[in-house]
Write a structure and sequence with these properties.
This protein is α/β, with parallel strands linked by helices and 561 residues long. The protein is 25% helix and 23% strand. It has three domains: 260 residues, HUPs (Rossmann fold, 3-Layer(aba) Sandwich), CATH 3.40.50.620; 123 residues, Ribosomal Protein L25, Chain P (Beta Barrel), CATH 2.40.240.10; 115 residues, Beta Barrel (Ribosomal Protein L25, Chain P). The strands form six sheets. A seven-stranded mixed beta sheet has the order 10-23-24-25-21-22-11, covered by helices on one side. The longest helix has 16 residues.
Length: 561
């Protein structure tokens, strides 16, 4: 028996969104025995994206807030597009985001027998009929919102004939497309969904769970409300594109006199520099414009996970954008900033040089080395410290040296003293160039009394630079990911193909990067902040022989001007 939620316990300082307002009123009225039961109902025909993450957080979050339940239910009504691979990936994504459906894992296919029996009931009520029109013919006869539809010539078949034909459809006696079962509703309704919609179509296709048992499969509008009803869902939360479907959802449930959940629509998530259409994402994958569904540039949950986004940052993003009644576009920079905020608290700092320039400390003893202590995370005292190797030969970033440096350039140039973080003060004395005039090595001296980067005599050094020991490091590949599209609304121009706006610089691969040795042996998805560079994580392609790191986000929004 479900405990009645304590309304006072659910109150918070944050204002209630419109869905929470509806639920709280229902609880006060004692509706549905004061239960709250939601569901997340994905179709297993692709990988989930950040828009689905919003729905996951909403449905599971509402259930948690009101001491209710949330089901995970796969709407597996189209066997030609579904696969166990998608089922497994969706379960992994929901778990990774931090939610648990416990023992409430369901499939639409669990209810195929019940749905068929209820379809027979509609036929017996003379509210459904078998139609021989093709999909094209139905479309031609459907009319417009101002013009009524034409009745199917098969609309007035007898109950006996309809039941017989429906059974033959089920048994596979007709080819695909030969017949459909249609509801008999209202040919004059301004809502096109109410003009005798299809309930079943013939599909001679093997289903990933029911095999070849069925030759007919239910349409979404017929199946969805019944699934909610069978599971005693109280609040059926869906995105705004289903608002016009709600009268049909209600009509089916009312005719059958079954438990009637309440459908509530909310605005779907739209992000700048992103496409959210499953069809368009599939195009990117199939045309090999990205490296699979989990490419770190994709807005899929698996892609974001691989890139290094955290479950906490995505949940925080969902909370921050809230639940709206009307569609709008959210700046992807908000999501990126929330990723930074979370990783700033969690990611240990490491030294990494992406564009190396060799430094030789000429007064440091040859053949010797030492270790210096470095803080793992200044935001987390419990993270402790680590030891970094230091010797005569080091690497710094090419950009940290300038030959004719301006006054406010606080990094290396000849004659200027800088601080190597956690190590020593060093002064650049000479720049060695190759035959083309490119600087290939810096000759420096260090102050042995400044160990730890601390001044022995009170003098101040403004420059603080990261570095890596040239003799003791990990040589790794680094993948610098950026936004997949170069414009805020890649699918907003109807005259152009969204693929025309792909960002050609969305992936840059640096094959030889030098990183401090403490990263060796760390697991896939371990996060780091590369000092002064950005947040990175270990990619799944890493091996013991070759480590690969993905840039999750830069330290700052690099797209800001």
């Amino acid at each position: 028996m479900m405990n009645k939620p304590d309304i006072k316990a659910t109150e918070s300082k944050a204002p209630l969104n419109f869905i929470e307002q509806i639920i709280e009123q229902d609880l006060k009225d004692g509706k549905n025995e004061s239960r709250v039961h939601t569901r997340f109902p994905p179709e297993p025909n692709g990988y989930l994206h950040i828009g689905h993450a919003k729905s996951i957080c909403l449905n599971f979050g509402i259930a948690k807030k009101y001491n209710g339940k949330c089901n995970l239910r796969f709407d597996d009504t189209n066997p030609t597009k579904e696969d166990v691979e998608y089922v497994d990936s969706i379960k992994e994504d929901v778990k990774w985001l931090g939610f648990d459906w416990e023992d409430r894992l369901y499939f639409a296919s669990d209810y195929f027998d019940k749905m068929y029996e209820l379809a027979q009931d509609l036929v017996r009520q003379e509210k459904a009929f078998v139609c021989d029109l093709s999909a094209q013919e139905v479309s031609q006869m459907r009319g417009t919102p101002q013009k009524p539809a034409q009745a199917s010539p098969y609309r007035n078949r007898s109950i006996e004939e309809n039941l017989d034909l429906l059974a033959k459809m089920k048994n596979g006696d007709f080819p695909d497309g030969a017949k459909t079962l249609r509801a008999k509703i209202d040919l004059t309704s301004p809502n096109m969904h109410m003009r005798d919609p299809a309930l079943y179509r013939i599909r001679h296709a093997e289903h990933h769970r029911t095999g070849n048992k069925w030759c007919i499969y239910p349409m979404y509008d017929w199946a969805h409300g019944l699934e909610d009803s069978f599971e005693k869902i109280t609040h059926s939360l869906c995105t705004l594109e289903f608002e016009n479907h709600r009268p049909l959802y209600d009509w089916f449930l009312n005719q059958l006199e079954v438990f009637h959940p309440q459908q509530i629509e909310f605005a779907r998530l739209n992000l700048t520099y992103t496409v959210m259409s499953k069809r368009k994402l599939l195009q990117l994958v199939e045309e090999k414009l990205v490296n699979g569904w989990d490419d770190p540039r994709m807005p899929t949950i698996s892609g974001m996970r691989r890139r290094g986004y955290t479950p906490t940052s995505i949940r925080n993003f969902s909370d921050r954008i809230g639940i709206a009644k009307r569609n709008n576009i959210i700046d992807v920079a908000l999501l990126e900033n929330l990723v930074r905020e979370d990783l700033n608290q969690k990611a240990n700092r490491v030294m990494a040089v992406l564009d190396p320039l060799k430094v030789v400390i000429t007064n440091y003893p040859e053949g010797e080395s030492e270790e210096v202590s470095a803080i793992n995370n200044p935001e987390d005292e419990s993270a402790g410290s680590r030891m970094l190797p230091f010797s005569r030969n080091l690497y710094i970033e090419q950009s940290d040296y300038m030959e004719d440096a301006p006054k406010k350039f606080f990094r290396m140039s000849v004659g200027k003293e800088v601080r190597l973080k956690y190590a020593y003060f060093v002064t650049c004395n000479e720049a060695i160039k190759d035959e083309n005039g490119k600087v290939v090595e810096l000759r420096c001296t260090y102050d042995p009394l400044s160990k730890g980067g601390k001044s022995p005599d009170g003098r101040k050094v403004k420059g603080a630079m990261h570095w890596v020991d040239a003799n003791n490091n990990i040589e790794a590949e680094v993948r610098l990911y950026d936004r997949l599209f170069s414009t805020e609304a890649p699918d907003g121009d109807k005259e152009k193909d969204f693929k025309d706006f792909l960002n050609t610089d969305s992936l840059q691969i640096i094959e030889k990067t030098y990183i401090e040795p403490s990263v060796q042996g760390k697991a896939y998805l371990t996060h780091f902040q590369f000092e002064r560079t950005g947040y990175f994580n270990i990619d799944k392609d890493s091996t013991d022989e070759k480590m690969i790191f993905n840039r999750t986000v830069s330290l700052r929004d690099s797209w800001k001007k």
